[in-house]
Amino acid sequence: MLKAAARAVPYQQFGTDKVVLRAEFEVTLTSGLPAVIGESIRQDGIETVDGITLVRRPVVVDLFEMSTVPQHAVEAHKLRETGMSLSKIGAALGISKRLADWATRMGAAMAARGLTDPFVRLTERPERVSRWNRERGRRDDGNDQRRAS
Fold first, then answer.
1. Cα-only R_g, the chain
2. Model confidence, pTM
3. Which of 48, 74, 97, 115 meets the CB 3.0–4.6 Å disulfide criterion with 110?
4. Who has greater pLDDT, 87 or 40?
5. Distances from the Cα of 6 to the Cα of 9, 38, 55, 80, angstroms
6. Least confident interval from 66-80, 104-118, 121-135
């Protein structure tokens, strides 16, 4: 059961000017859950209303296809810390040695900042960003304000 409608929220890819959208919403689960699932849920976010146990959990869903480097950054960094070569990391992840290198570097930079998600939620317009133009209208609303050059 959804408590509220999903919202599209902008996130910026770590270390780049790329902005993507993620859907954010809250899921409410009721006491009709199988006992195994109910036992595995942590106690925070649990409340009882009229004798029914409700478990509320925030959910974030990508509204884009994640590119290879951020997709493998954390795992590539962990493998590199074990002493694995870039060639072997690439083979283990099914990517090229070059992409393994980029993913390892991104993962190391993220680890240095204490991040595990390669996308950071935006609360305001960043200084540099690709494909973010408030002056241009939506292309599908018939109000295209792009200037001809």
1. 21
2. 0.69
3. 115
4. 87
5. 9, 25, 18, 37
6. 121-135
